[in-house]
Amino acid sequence: MAVVDELLRTEEDGTISFGNHKLAAKAKVEDYEHGGDLYKVKTYKELTKLEKNGMFAYESEPGTSVNGFTETENGVAFTVEGDEDAQITVGLEEDTEYDVYLDEVNAGRMKTNLSGKLNISVELASAGEVKVKITK
């Protein structure tokens, strides 16, 4: 896997990839159309943030590169890459329980807060990349 040089792109399978955790300076792409929605990404080594139609979708500290990001009515799935362990927040349905899988291992059931945000920690320093799946 590699960083997303374009900062935000559509993959052949219909998913999106975004972020570049190797950038020293902040970079962004706005008004990127995908599937009838408008996306905005801000990324660099300290932070990666994705918005969909002006609403929060994803954030990581430090910055990460995300490949194959897909959303369904039941959750999200993506592969995340970074040089350091990351705190990741995803935007989902508010006050809802989700099962979190990291590299296909059940990390437990977690509940979103009233704004629909779910926070997870992902160990990337030793792994390099981790597959994340969050489902109702």
Please provide a written account of the structure.
- The strands form two sheets. The protein has a seven-stranded antiparallel beta sheet with strand order 1-2-7-8-13-10-11, with no helix packed on it.
- A hairpin with a 5-residue loop joins β1 and β2 (16-18).
- It is an all-beta fold and 136 residues long.
- It has strands spanning 8-10, 16-18, 27-34, 37-44, 47-52, 55-61, 65-72, 75-81, 86-91, 97-102, 105-111, 117-122, 129-135.
- It is 0% helix and 60% strand.
Summarize the structure.
The protein is mainly beta and 136 residues long. The chain has no helices and 13 strands.
Set out the fold topology.
Blueprint: E1 8-10, E2 16-18, E3 27-34, E4 37-44, E5 47-52, E6 55-61, E7 65-72, E8 75-81, E9 86-91, E10 97-102, E11 105-111, E12 117-122, E13 129-135
Antiparallel strand pairs: 1-2, 2-7, 3-4, 4-5, 5-6, 6-9, 7-8, 8-13, 9-12, 10-11, 10-13
Tell me the β content. Answer: over 45%
How large is the radius of gyration? 14 Å
**Strand segment count:** 13
Using the alpha-carbon principal axes, give the shape: globular
Number of helices: 0
**Residue-averaged pLDDT, rounded?**
95
Domain tally: 1
What percent of residues adopt helix (DSSP H or I)?
under 10%
CATH architecture: Sandwich
Helices and strands, in order, run as EEEEEEEEEEEEE
Biggest β-sheet: strands ordered side by side in the sheet = 1-2-7-8-13-10-11
Decide which structural class fits the backbone: mainly beta
CATH class: Mainly Beta
Summarize the biggest pleated sheet.
7 strands, antiparallel
CATH fold group: Immunoglobulin-like
- Cα distance, first to last residue? 28 Å
Unreliable sequence segments: none
